[in-house]
Amino acid sequence: MEIIIGSIPLSIEDVVRVARYDHKVEIDQESKKKVNHSREYVEKLLAERRVVYGLTTGFGKFSETYIPSEQAKQLQINLIRSHACGLGNPFPKEVARAIILLRVNALLQGHSGIRLKVIETMVEMLNKGVTPVIPEQGSLGASGDLAPLAHLALVLMGEGEAYYEGEQMDGGKALASAGIQPVSLEAKEGLALINGTQVMTAVGTLACWDAQQLANWADCTAALTTDVLRGVKQAFEPETHDIRPHAGQKQVAKNILKLTKDSKLMTEQGELRVQDAYSLRCAPQVHGASRDALEHIQEKLVIEINSVTDNPLIFAEEDKVISGGNFHGQPIALAMDYLSIAAAELANISERRIERMVNPQLNDPLPGFLTKEGGMNSGLMIPQYAAASVVSENKSLAHPASVDSIPSSANQEDHVSMGTTAARKAAQIVGNAYKVLAIELFCGARAADYQNPENLGKGTKWAYSFCREHVPFIEEDHVMHPYFRKLEHLMKDIETTQQLEQQINA
């Protein structure tokens, strides 16, 4: 499947397919015209020796320093080399690929003044599998993601480091191996490459996609846990949710009812108990709030994915160059802090359901810690410890990054978003939440073995079978870590998530 970029807005799924599944990219013809027109205007400005930020001036606090047009090329090279100050471990390859895609999409809007050749080289890198090594730390999230994007630009110039065919190597060697010519940057192009929010947006887009699938899995594991604990089904019936009509809440209640349909384990109100604990009964309200948050976050990300976020911006038709603040990452920073909270809560309530399944004071008639030979075997005692540890870690990570700001560039850039930090933390929390839900699925399947899986509902039986397809039932104590890890990876896989959606939408 080839993704056409430029005039056609990119979706979150488009980004995932290119970044994670290596789909090819093609630039549409209309965007090529826009880019060429914008570049012609930049050449005109240079010929007229106009004073334009980043074109014939220095950067940041040096914006008042005039640079002669004959030094414009060297100015761009110096910019990239001086700004490539990234720190820490490199981003995963999928994130680096998403960064390239989003930067290309922004440049194709025709307001950046960059040559088409530079953009086409970036597309070649995507299509031929040359992935820059981009350190994940070092961005303030305003003036764009300067440091990490400079590492992308280095590879375009034939410098820096890149991955190619499973090997990390010199950027120039990677380009040569793939048959790609490095680019010699010209006026405005270095600034156009690094002044944007594409790093925080790339991290956030992949994390949001994963969180949306996580929300489906949370409904699935909650349904399985509720089923094996013989939950009261009236809590999910529509009357309650119709009179508090939050969209997410209504959706979750509907999902759990569908997944537990035809269950012989679910109970009527008063049959075993009048009402369940909150982690079961309030799943629609808690999961639903996270779903509503994810809808808002997706809206913000889709806008950002298809926006122009560098500076200055070229408006060739109006004969204008405007220095504004589209590079400021605050819209994404706030959304990423919201994502952190939304995902952390899905993990929080999941861990409480795990506790109810294994605790012998709460899980009657199931055996304590889901083992028949307690004492000799610890059963599933420690998986709950592991889930609790990860949930506690998420609480620390969920502290908002967007409320912080440290002035930079001699106080010229006196408020920054910390949006990339917020996005990185959100992605870590989403990853941790998958670990917790994998444990809940593992425990739910074990509990179902003691309740007879044939008694499960239509959808919960599918969840049980999915787990048992990849994880055997072993009653004696054994090493469980590999199984948790396997389930976690499978739950993120696009084909598996589509199977789950089919169960939910059946």
TrEMBL record:
PROSITE patterns: PAL_HISTIDASE. GO terms for biological process: L-histidine catabolic process to glutamate and formamide; L-histidine catabolic process to glutamate and formate. It comes from the Bacteria. It comes from Siminovitchia acidinfaciens. It catalyses: L-histidine = trans-urocanate + NH4(+). This is Histidine ammonia-lyase. Signal peptide: none annotated. Contains an active site 4-methylidene-imidazol-5-one (MIO), which is formed autocatalytically by cyclization and dehydration of residues Ala-Ser-Gly. There is a cross-link at A142-G144 (5-imidazolinone (Ala-Gly)). It is an enzyme of class 4 (lyase). The modification 2,3-didehydroalanine (Ser) is found at S143. Its main location: cytoplasm. Belongs to the PAL/histidase family. Pathway: Amino-acid degradation; L-histidine degradation into L-glutamate; N-formimidoyl-L-glutamate from L-histidine: step 1/3. Keywords: Cytoplasm, Histidine metabolism, Lyase. Its EC number is 4.3.1.3. It is found in: Cytoplasm. One of its GO terms (cellular component) is cytoplasm.
